[in-house]
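User: Sequence recovery, please. Input:
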């Protein structure tokens, strides 16, 4: 129904001239119908809250106990998804005032920040890229460069995966997986998964190549998203909680995260490529694929798109301008960047929203008066992620203002004797396991990152030394189809099964955890200045 049409009634209007059949009678109410697992999960949150309020006492203000109770309620609903996650995310708006943790105005302010505006503007830019098929043209052009003649399967796999990772750097990894998977499967459509020419030897290399491509796109999307602050919601959640918990410290800017995230993602990406080549690409792959896959197919796909239109060029120009502004806002202490012209008042969110506004001003060259974007396209904005990000802000602020953060810090005194490398490894593994089996990576980061900041204080290490491994670990969910949305996108293609994901995902999880644990105390210590205390 077109609700935006002023002529459309808000409620359906029955035509009195046509007889209408009476609605079927509702089923009789039964108390047994209420005894469902879903309803138990709904009650679990308030029950945990009540038990904590009645049975737990702290040597501190009452608000610290209330904050723990409210946190248990929200976390229980997040983990069980008793109610939709976006609704759980706005629960602090009524729970905090009712339990005396914060005023209504105070908690509402937590839901809007520079990081939130960064996410809003970035998603509008992504929607513009989708609208004009810029991602598809980019993918086909890059893949065409890697195809080789005759076809080189490892090199072609590298091109497809690298394209996916590159696109994911600048848009959310879920959107990237959804957009890139049809591009990848379109390339595979020319391959006979079950050849009819009786060539049994050609079947296994072709099937394995299809598995490698689908797994590569599935995993390259979240890996590429690790590179930039806007590539995945987890990175934004980390930056938001860091800024909220330590407002006096230097915030995590786009440029700062890129200096750490890009080398990290590059190493994990290369590990992915090597694992896929070893597991799925045999020496006979090139001969088996040569008869079905060549550059001519990719050129035909590119020709279907036609020449680049004015709107595509404008979107690419806006896209490139955004990246340049993000990268140059704050460069080094000696070269402050253009942000110094505004005395530090402009942030990455400023750039994001300014560029998003341009999309509604610049023409698309198709029809007179038509712009690159219109508001109807923005109805696809992922409000669930935006609200989850706001909830993370609210919980982090509540832990600080209620005194719960100090109590948790004292309770973790035993961590002072544990070596940092062991803590970082365990944190990364726990975060990865929670994302794999219990909840989404965004929710896992929102749950764990505030707690890790307190653990770090107790263990006498820089908070980012644990917060970053915890956030990255929550993105290493590669083993199950339900681990992350990109996993589901790859699994539903029919080219891979659970055993493929378990085998490849376990190896990638182990290698990724090791890379994070080793890179954080080396490169991370330099980028985030974690050896000299808070800066």
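Assistant: Recovered sequence (535 residues):
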């Amino acid at each position: 129904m077109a609700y935006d049409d002023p002529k459309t009634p808000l409620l359906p209007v029955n035509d009195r001239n046509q007889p209408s059949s009476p609605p079927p009678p509702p089923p009789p109410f039964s108390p047994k119908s209420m005894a469902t697992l879903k309803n138990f999960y709904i009650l679990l949150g308030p029950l945990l809250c009540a038990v904590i309020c009645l049975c737990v006492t702290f040597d501190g203000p009452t608000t610290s106990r209330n904050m723990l109770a409210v946190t248990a309620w929200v976390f229980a609903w997040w983990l069980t998804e008793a109610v939709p996650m976006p609704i759980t995310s706005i629960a602090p708006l009524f729970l905090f005032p009712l339990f005396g943790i914060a005023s209504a105005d105070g908690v509402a302010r937590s839901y809007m920040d520079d990081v939130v505006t960064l996410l809003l503007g970035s998603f509008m830019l992504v929607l513009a890229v989708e609208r004009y098929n810029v991602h598809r043209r980019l993918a086909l052009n890059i893949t065409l460069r890697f195809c080789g003649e005759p076809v080189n399967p490892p090199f072609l796999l590298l091109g497809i995966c690298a394209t996916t990772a590159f696109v994911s750097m600048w848009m959310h990894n879920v959107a990237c997986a959804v957009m890139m998977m049809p591009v990848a499967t379109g390339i595979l459509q020319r391959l006979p998964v079950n050849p009819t020419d009786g060539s049994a030897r050609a079947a296994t290399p072709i099937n394995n190549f299809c598995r490698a491509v689908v797994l590569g796109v599935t995993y390259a999307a979240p890996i590429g998203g690790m590179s930039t602050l806007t590539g995945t919601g987890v990175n934004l959640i980390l930056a938001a909680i860091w800024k909220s918990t330590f407002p006096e410290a230097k915030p995590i800017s786009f440029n700062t995260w890129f200096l750490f995230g890009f080398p990290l993602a590059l190493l994990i990406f290369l590990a992915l490529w090597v694992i896929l080549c070893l597991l799925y690409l045999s020496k006979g792959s090139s001969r088996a694929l040569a008869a079905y896959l060549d550059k001519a197919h990719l050129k035909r796909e590119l020709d279907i798109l036609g020449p680049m239109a004015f709107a595509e060029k404008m979107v690419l120009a806006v896209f490139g301008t955004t990246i340049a502004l993000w990268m140059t806002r704050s460069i080094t202490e000696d070269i402050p960047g253009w942000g110094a012209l505004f005395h530090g008042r402009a942030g990455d969110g400023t750039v994001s929203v300014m560029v998003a506004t341009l999309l509604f001003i610049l023409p698309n060259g198709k029809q007179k008066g038509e712009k690159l974007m219109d508001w109807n396209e923005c109805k696809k904005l992922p409000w669930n992620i935006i609200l989850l990000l706001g909830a993370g802000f609210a919980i982090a602020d509540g832990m600080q203002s209620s005194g719960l953060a100090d109590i948790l810090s004292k309770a973790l005194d035993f961590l002072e004797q544990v070596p940092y490398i062991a803590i970082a490894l365990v944190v990364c593994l726990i975060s990865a396991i929670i994302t794999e089996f219990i909840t989404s990576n965004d929710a896992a980061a929102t749950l764990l990152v505030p707690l890790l900041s307190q653990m770090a204080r107790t263990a006498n290490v820089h908070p980012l030394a644990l917060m970053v491994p915890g956030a990255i670990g929550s993105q290493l969910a590669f083993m199950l189809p339900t681990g992350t949305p990109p996993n589901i996108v790859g699994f539903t293609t029919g080219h891979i099964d659970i055993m493929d994901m378990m085998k490849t995902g376990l190896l990638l999880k182990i290698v990724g955890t090791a890379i994070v644990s080793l890179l954080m105390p080396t490169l991370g210590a330099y980028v985030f200045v974690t050896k000299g205390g808070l800066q």
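The longest helix spans residues 498-527.
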